[in-house]
């Protein structure tokens, strides 16, 4: 599925995300919506239409394949060609529900991974020593590698590249994929500490602030230090450090409990794969574009970098 930023869907999605976020911060959003809400409604319609289009296209393809399968051996069908839409259609009859579910998955994963990687390389360009430590880990893990890394499902696991994974964790600690979260109680609720909440109470927490809390992360909470995620082996000092785990309630960037992000593991593996590949093959240099020394986020449900990340890219020459 082509998700280029110039697509009408992409533009509509970005606008709707920002406009919906504004409802959480602007106490007069209803008046604003009355005066200028037509653009938001058009954007939401564009997003919903896109969902219906991809579901309709999948249904037509399934029907065509079924007609073809009647004249061929069923054993020729490759189960790996299945995808999310097909899986939803197998279990849900209502195509509109399938479209809404697909958009839910898409909205959760479309921007968050790309944005977290943008912040990762922003930090690597600001901290060249840490970038060098990733290269050292890659050289140690892949001593025979040349122009490209022999990455596989096994070699992008946190246990194989713990420092690279630590860099990603440290990035999303300071720049969480969703900077604030809220939930509404559907029934009277009592917290573990005894706090009672009535039905309809809204609970808000801010991963952005929690990731900078000195009570949780120490006095250097605002410092980009991936090493905080590593712990040395007490049995073998020569063994490389392992990745330290944090509870989801201490590090809630992927939510927690029954609502833990379904794509958490996929996002982590994808991040390690992209970071390792790009650091190995390219050198990046930040371009100052007049926005000051610090990049900031734009108004959105997630955490996009305002103006993107201008940089110069140079391919690493290897013999």
Tag the structure with descriptive keywords.
319 residues, mainly alpha, two-stranded antiparallel ribbon, two-stranded antiparallel sheet, globular, single chain
Write the layout of secondary structure elements.
Layout: H1 8-25, H2 29-36, H3 38-69, H4 84-91, H5 95-109, H6 112-126, H7 128-141, H8 162-174, E1 181-184, E2 189-190, E3 196-197, E4 202-205, H9 207-210, H10 214-217, E5 230-231, E6 242-243, H11 264-281, E7 282-286, E8 311-315
Antiparallel strand pairs: 1-4, 2-3, 5-6, 7-8
Helix pairs in contact: 1-3, 3-5, 4-5, 6-8, 6-11
Mean of residue pLDDT?
A: 86
Structural class assignment? mainly alpha
**Strand-and-helix sequence, N→C?**
HHHHHHHHEEEEHHEEHEE
Give the spatial strand order of the biggest sheet: 1-4
Major sheet details: 2 strands, antiparallel
Spans with pLDDT under 50 lasting ≥5 residues?
74-82
Number of helices: 11
What is the overall shape? globular
Portion in helices: 40-55%
Q: Compute the CA-based radius of gyration.
A: 23 Å
Number of strands: 8
For the terminal residues, how far apart are their CA atoms?
36 Å
Q: What share of residues are in beta strands?
A: 5-15%
């Amino acid at each position: 599925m082509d998700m280029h930023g110039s697509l009408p869907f992409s533009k509509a999605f970005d606008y709707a995300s920002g406009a919906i976020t504004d409802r959480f911060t602007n106490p007069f959003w209803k008046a604003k919506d009355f005066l200028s809400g037509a653009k938001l409604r058009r954007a939401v319609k564009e997003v919903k239409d896109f969902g219906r289009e991809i579901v309709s296209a999948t249904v037509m393809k399934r029907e065509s394949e079924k007609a073809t399968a009647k004249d061929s051996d069923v054993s020729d069908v490759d189960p790996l060609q299945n995808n999310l839409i097909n899986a939803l259609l197998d279990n849900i009859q209502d195509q509109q529900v399938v479209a809404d579910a697909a958009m839910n998955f898409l909205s959760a994963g479309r921007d968050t991974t790309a944005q977290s990687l943008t912040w990762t390389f922003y930090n690597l360009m600001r901290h060249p020593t840490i970038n060098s430590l990733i290269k050292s880990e890659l050289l140690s893990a892949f001593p025979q590698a040349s122009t490209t890394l022999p990455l596989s499902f096994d070699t992008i696991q946190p246990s194989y590249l713990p420092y690279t994974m630590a860099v990603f964790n440290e990035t999303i600690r300071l720049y969480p994929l969703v900077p604030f979260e809220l939930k509404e109680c559907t029934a009277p609720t009592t917290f573990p500490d005894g706090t009672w909440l009535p039905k309809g109470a809204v609970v808000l927490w801010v991963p952005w602030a929690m990731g900078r809390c000195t009570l949780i992360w120490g006095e250097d909470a605002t410092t980009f230090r991936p090493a905080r995620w590593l712990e040395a082996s007490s049995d073998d000092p020569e063994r490389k450090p392992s990745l330290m785990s944090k509870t989801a309630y201490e590090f809630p960037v992927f939510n927690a409990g029954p609502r833990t992000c379904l794509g958490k593991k996929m996002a982590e593996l994808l991040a390690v794969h992209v970071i390792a590949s790009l650091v190995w093959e390219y050198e990046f240099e930040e371009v100052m574009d007049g926005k000051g020394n610090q990049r900031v986020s734009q108004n959105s449900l997630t955490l996009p970098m305002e103006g993107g990340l201008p940089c110069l890219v140079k391919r690493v020459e290897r013999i």
